[in-house]
Amino acid sequence: MSTELLAPLDLAFWHLESDAHPMHLGALAVFSPAPGVSPQDLLALLGERAAAIPRLRMRVRDVLLPVGGAAWFTDKDFDVHRHVRRVVLAEGDFMAEATRLAGELMEQPLERGLPPWQMYLLSGAGGGPFAVLVKLHHALADGMRAVAIGAGIFDQIAAAGAGRGAARRRTPVPPRSWLPGPHKVAGAALDRIGDVGRALGVGASVVRASRLDMRGSTVLTASSSGTRRLATAELDAETVQRIRRAEGGTANDVLLAVVAGALRRWMLERGEQLPVADPRALVPVSRRRPHAAATGNRLSAYLLGLPVGEPRGRERLRLVRSGMDRNKAAGPMRGAGAVAVLADQLPALAHRFGAPLAGNAARMLFDVLVTSVPLPRSALSLGGCPLSAVYPMAPLARGQALAVALSTYGGRVQVGLVADGKALPDLDRLAVAVQDELAELQSLVVPVVPAPS
Fold first, then answer.
1. What are the distances in angstroms from CA 78 to CA 43, 51, 73, 113?
2. Where in the chain is the domain with CATH 3.30.559.10?
3. pLDDT tens for each residue of 311-342
4. pLDDT for the residue numbered 196
5. What topology does CATH give the domain 182-445?
6. Which residue spans of the chain are classified as CATH 3.30.559.30?
7. In what order do the strands lie in the sheet with 3-5?
8. What's the burial of 290, exposed, middle or buried (CB within 10 Å: 0-12/13-18/19+)?
């Protein structure tokens, strides 16, 4: 039976979860129909491909050592039919019904005695477009790893994976000892000394950045109701790039400025007083190296004040750029945003007993999560049905009402907004504000070329 200890950060995510605060991330993938492909065919194909992904056969069990630790074990009783299901959508607007239902399904915690994931095929009774909702526990993967795992359902990646799997089966793999040699022990000791020093620096930054008076709290922070609402928006990726070329910085800077402006627009439309202090965004940064073998979470993050108090769109973008430039100059391993690095240095027992305290402390550091999830650039399909959009979904931290996730596919930036359903019942208005904000920012910074007469 295959086993693998949960890394400290994975263990933190595992223990942070409660019924009202599920710690799974997800994505709503939307497909166009193809002739002759039925929902039954798609459901069978999803089950077959999910069952072929080794990571999806693993579940978590406690272990004796390290004390308080847990490990991934291959589930010998794995049954893919407990994880892949079809839900028939009510008649009406497909996207409205799919997002409504996806929000309800995201409320439900994953069953902890099983491999922690679910896939739902959301389709109408009479055919037409359909969607696949994927839920993966954050202990199983960070955003990049989740994409790598979930992408195994697509035709192009499943075919490539089958070829690699055959090659692996032809090449015997020698057994690997869990006991390190003396050179590895020495290297690990030196690394550990460096890790401890880095953790102390991050810990001091976290304390300095914590807001004991909670003055940054806004409508974005709320007591959790345990409910979830999902809204989606689409932005033109080329428009984002035109703004970037005109103003400098990165595409992510532009998107963060769009989020800041959309929040300002939405708060004013609701009649909210703008916060005295800019709300803080936690902007995750992957520490995963290309082609690295690590399977768990490899994350750090930056803290960024979203300039919602600034009325000028161009100035908001400049403030976001300068803030992100400062973060990048310090690096992802420093500063209070690197709290995930600190979590990675704590022993298993600290995560088991300290998770409730850590969960309640999240709102002392940040108000909203804003994350970008990279997707494959090539065209993808499922059973010959073309993928048209992927809306990523991030988990909500305890005491927070909104998480924003963005991904780019097919020349469009898809925005997934996940909110506490009772705290933000008007989430659809924020989705509209995101689209309006990009249009206004474009009009401010990109000159309009008159059509030839």
1. 17, 9, 11, 11
2. 3-170
3. 999 999 999 999 999 988 887 666 555 555 55
4. 44
5. Chloramphenicol Acetyltransferase (3.30.559)
6. 182-445
7. 3-5, 70-74, 58-62
8. exposed
